[in-house]
Write a structure and sequence with these properties.
Blueprint (H helix, E strand, L loop, with lengths): L3 E5 L3 H12 L3 E5 L3 H8 L4 E3 L9 E4 L4 H9 L4 H4 L5 E4 L5 H13 L3 E4 L2 E2 L1 H7 L2 E6 L2 H6 L1 H7 E8 L3 H29 L4 H9 L6 H11 L10 H18 L4 H10 L17 H5 L9
Parallel strand pairs: 1-2, 1-4, 2-3, 4-5, 5-6, 8-9
Antiparallel strand pairs: 7-8
Helix pairs in contact: 1-6, 3-5, 9-11, 9-12, 10-11, 12-13
């Protein structure tokens, strides 16, 4: 029998995940605080309800902006701790604070529910096509219970440890992505000033050890052609970088490069703005390559 799934949070990621799971044959109900989000998904054939009318389900899949939103949905009465049927599983696909996730996982277990943190990568397109990457934090038995759902949502799943581990690895991944955007932009700017076309420089980098997903995917897909429509905002990346910094601080490990990357991403709140595509962080750097005054 197909799992009954309730998707909470119907933004670009959650909405597309809900539609993907529905097309795969699962019984999916979606919910969102905002009527416009519910109406948009209802128009695409998804069954939707208000947050006050959440149905009984075997899986509650959360796709929310921050740990605070996740905590509210789970803890604030009548939250999932009180409303979810015993034995159901809460799967948090948000990029959340690992410490908060671990605390929530304990409360969820005490309430007789299962927990899995499963932050995702691949953007709205990956959510819409079932080709996400997922980092799983939880026990093996819980993963096996929801495996059909995970397989329908993603192309790759990596179990990285117990509760909270998925979010630790996701923050590490986003830190590296944020750093690679800065360093690749500087490399492209240097090459452009020296007369090397960005496409040629990227092709050279991607044939060597300096390549990354940023040079292989982000630059050709969203930067060089100036599309800047990845579906992930600068504000969300800034939030994730702050979480990574705070996690390192809680662990008592000084990470100078992480601090520098966080500072660079927060140096100018308007360039790019929080609402801009996160790849726009490269724009001020690339602009220097064509700035005639800086060349003098």
């Amino acid at each position: 029998m197909a799992l009954r799934i309730c998707v909470i949070g119907l933004g670009q990621m959650g909405g597309n995940m809900a539609l993907t799971l529905s097309r795969a044959g699962f019984a999916v109900t979606g919910s969102d605080l905002f009527p416009a989000a519910r109406e948009r998904l209802a128009a695409q054939g998804l069954e939707v309800v208000t947050p006050e009318a959440l149905p009984d389900a075997e899986v509650y899949l959360l796709s929310l902006p921050t740990s605070a939103h996740v905590s509210e949905v789970i803890e604030r009465a009548p939250g999932l701790l009180q409303r979810a049927p015993k034995g159901s599983v809460i799967v948090d696909t948000s990029t959340s604070d690992p410490a908060v996730s671990r605390a929530l996982a304990e409360k969820v277990a005490a309430a007789g529910l299962g927990w899995l943190d499963a932050p995702v990568s691949g953007g709205p397109k990956g959510a819409a096509t079932g080709t996400l990457g997922m980092l799983l934090g939880g026990d093996t038995a819980t993963i096996e219970r929801v495996a059909p759902m995970l397989e329908a949502m993603s192309a790759k799943r990596t179990h990285v440890g117990g509760p909270g581990s998925g979010h630790v690895v996701k923050l590490a991944n986003n830190y590296l992505c944020a750093a690679h955007l800065l360093t690749t932009a500087e490399a492209v700017a240097m090459g452009a000033r020296a007369g090397v076309e960005p496409e040629a420089l990227l092709a050279g980098i991607n044939s060597g050890s300096g390549r990354s997903a940023v040079s292989e995917v982000n630059f050709p897909t969203w930067v060089v052609n100036e599309r800047f429509d990845s579906g992930f905002t600068t504000g969300l990346m800034r939030k994730d970088l702050r979480l990574a910094r705070d996690t390192a601080a809680e662990l008592g490990i000084p990470l100078a490069l992480l601090e520098a990357v966080v500072a660079a991403w927060h140096a100018d709140p308007d360039a790019p703005a929080d609402s801009d595509d996160f790849n726009h962080i490269v724009s001020p750097i690339l602009a220097r390559a064509t700035d005639s005054e800086s060349a003098q």
